[in-house]
Amino acid sequence: MPKVLISDKLSPAAVQIFKDRGIEVDVKTGLDKDELIKIIGDYDGLAIRSNTKVTPAVIEAAKNLKVVGRAGIGVDNVDLPAATAKGIIVMNTPFGNSITTAEHAIAMMFALARDIPQANASTHAGKWEKSKFMGVEVTAKTLGIIGCGNIGSIVAERGIGLKMKVIAFDPFLTAERAADLGVEKVELDELLKRADFITLHTPMTPQTKNVLNAANLAKTKKGVRIINCARGGLIVEADLKAAIESGHVAGAALDVFEEEPAKTNILFGMEQIVATPHLGASTNEAQENVALQVAEQMSDYLLDGAITNS
Ligand code: MLT
Q1: Is the minimum distance from the CB of 281 to ligand 1 under 6 angstroms?
Q2: Per-residue pLDDT tens for 119-172?
Q3: In this predicted model, what pLDDT tens digit does every residue of 228-253 receive, in sequence order?
Q4: What is the pLDDT, as a whole number, of residue 153?
Q5: Is the CB of residue 50 below 6 angstroms from any atom belonging to ligand 1?
Q6: Residue 159 vs residues 41, 133, 139, 235, 308: alpha-carbon distances, Å
Q7: Domain 3-96+284-304 classified CATH 3.40.50.720?
Q8: Extents of the domains making up the chain
Q9: 232 within ligand 1 shell (Cβ under 6 A)
Q10: ipTM
């Protein structure tokens, strides 16, 4: 009977699926790297979210490991070359949390447009600063989406529903898909020049890393607002800070940071920054979806050799 270790907090539904499929499952969360290395040799499968770091040392100790399943999209916490060299399949669940992450981006856009977190803190503090918080409407504004795949296209639909003009930069977006979505496909420079709100929805790759750096921020419209619920390294935080301090960028809503967990950050404490701790996928629905999907996919592989989303 194959044996799976769940080493991050996953919906209990995943445990049930493994059991129903005849797979033995242990749940051990919060292991440090030495503890994981000590026990990983017992397992055929490892189910994770983002906390567990699957390093070359973990892979080296994983004598029986056949599959790592990431309940979520990014596999940044898995050393892919080391896993591949050992013939270990790494799979993710690319669709289960798309709606949830898109909704977080929209929530962040409104938080930014209307200073909701700042006004909330001020009101709780008994200040009643009614005249301090003057927002902007999103209706008729241009929403620039960088990366119009699973999540970006849901954001596009929501933006259109909010009566925004939606433009998108994505080299993989076909003209037909753009037309179906009702978005205008543009080049990056055009998007930077026209957007009132810019939202990022690309994975972190060598091509996308630092896409919002000083040079590109300088091409944006004065007063632009930026939302990032994708990956921290897409924005150069020092350059964003400088662009906010100069008054060029009106503000940014960030769910992700160059270094995570972000206990400190050069942007923290700035009035124009709305920050959440990588909550993009954190809804009951999304966590249930990704847990179920990863458990089914891993079971299919361990029992029948069927590979999905690797
Ligand atoms: C993902 O890659 O699925 C998201 O960033 C969410 C997460 O890591 O929890």
Answers
A1: yes
A2: 999 999 999 999 999 999 999 999 999 999 999 999 999 999 999 999 999 999
A3: 999 999 999 999 999 999 999 999 99
A4: 98
A5: yes
A6: 48, 23, 9, 22, 31
A7: yes
A8: 3-96+284-304, 98-275
A9: no
A10: 0.93
Domain 98-275 top-level CATH class: alpha beta
| pLDDT at 310 (0 to 100) | 86
| Confidence (pLDDT) at 145 | 99
Cα-to-centroid distance, 98 and ligand 1 (Å): 10
Cβ atoms of 154 and 116 within 8 Å: the answer is: no
Convert the chain into a string of H (helix), E (strand) and C (coil).
CCEEEECCCCCHHHHHHHHHCCCEEEECCCCCHHHHHHHHHHCCEEEECCCCCECHHHHHHCCCCCEEEECCCCCCCECHHHHHHCCCEEECCCCCCHHHHHHHHHHHHHHHHHCHHHHHHHHHCCCCCCCCCCCCCCCCCEEEEECCCHHHHHHHHHHHHCCCEEEEECCCCCHHHHHHHCCEECCHHHHHHHCCEEEECCCCCCCCCCCECHHHHHCCCCCEEEEECCCHHHECHHHHHHHHHCCCEEEEEECCCCCCCCCCCCCCCCCCEEECCCCCCCCHHHHHHHHHHHHHHHHHHHHHCCCCCC
| Ranges of the chain with pLDDT below 50 | none
How far apart, in whole angstroms, are the C-alpha atoms of residue 232 and residue 209?
Answer: 9
Find out whether 68 and 92 touch, Cβ atoms under 8 Å: no
Domains 3-96+284-304 and 98-275 share a fold: yes
pLDDT of residue 113: 98
Question: Which ligand 1 atom minimizes the distance to the CA of 230?
Answer: 5
